[in-house]
Amino acid sequence: MTQAKLVFDPFSEDFFNGAYETYRRMRDEAPVYYSDEHDFYALTRHEDVAPAFKDFDTYSSKYGVDLHSIRSGLPSDAGARMIIFMDPPEHRNMRSLLNKVFTPRAIQAQSENATHKIEKYLSRVDRDGFDAVQEFTAPFPVEVITAMLGVPEDEAQQVRHWIDESLHREIGQVEMGEQALHAGAETAMFYFDLVQKRRADPQDDLFTKLIEAEIEREDGEKDKLDDLEIAAFATLLGAAGAETVTKLVGNAVYLFAKNPDQWQKLREDRSKVPAAVEELLRYEAPSQYNVRRSMCDVHLHGTTIPEGSPVFLIGGSANRDERAWTDADAFDIDRDRTEAQNLGLGYGIHSCLGAALARLESTIALEKLLDFMPRFEVDFDNCTRVQMQNVVGWKNVPVKVLK
Amino acid sequence: MTQKIEVDFGLCESNGICMGIIPEVFDLDDQDYLHVLHDEVTPENEERIRESVRQCPRQAISIREE
By residue range, what is the domain housing residue A143? Predict the structure, then answer.
């Protein structure tokens, strides 16, 4: 029997379902993969992906970080300047505006609020049958991040629905659809309006911080972010802070149901919860890839990636690379974490700004779940996946708590 | 020839991974600023310092040969 042609399509059901078998074949058969359908390259081995994340001179973010933007060939600083579309030195200036808010120590201040939100939603669900994603992992993270931003609590869930719509993709759909564009515009207007309010009435929140911040431009001049730039920054932080934890904790419920021995280990020793969060980030990171633009011809594994190509850096594959990890496909919270760099939160200058917040929320959520459902079962037949731009995860995970 | 630790404080974001690996060398103060308590790489600490270099999500740590 001949093997099927190797196809990695980030807009396919295969991707949305977690394309780990495809990644394995890519690592083995085509470490520099080329898609003739979509005209992009992809790196999948840990030894290639990790250095590429670090090498911003070769792999630029300036042309966007999704396939559609990079193919347009335009630097994305044509519109509002956003941090994920920046290379140094602009990136460093922009990042320094907020990075002190997101250090592990600073983020401890969010612990009480996060615990409160987590308990609020967990207390509302029906133990005999609830949807772990829709009723729990989706509603709480958005409230934590939007509270930090300064969004009124009663508007947080609306923000979440806009995020879901703006990231949603139908199978085969590369660009944003009409509904996604509409949701994006609604979000921008909503934040724009909030910026105006904070200008008039400053508060102790991130909107106010961004309004007051000064940023050093390329020419050394200092000036402030304009309202559109702040709205864009808020859109990014809101989406990054909400979607990812939703997916990670949703994945946790599913994966621990599939691997009850691992859940048992956590029940016996709560000190393993942080290690479990790291393993979840490795095993199935919500953000599977980032796309960069090659700024010169890249020679790798006997192939040349021409300058100007979109290159997928698939951290989701590198994290399952059997060359880097022992039993890479085993979900094992006790694994040796020093074997390789976990790329679940990215790596290098664009590594996740909110990493400490993601870890904090996920750790608290797992601890509360251990209290709430020491024994549980998942209706695997009725679990469904989301279909989204660059993120994988569950849309529905039906759970029943066992006596 | 000696080896010394170098930290790029423009990159460091006080994630504290290094402090978790080898607290007698890396320390975060109350202001969240990183301090290198001993900058010399010795046979005793070399392995853990190299681990810190590798695990730093910001790649802010390097080892310089003198």
Answer: 13-401
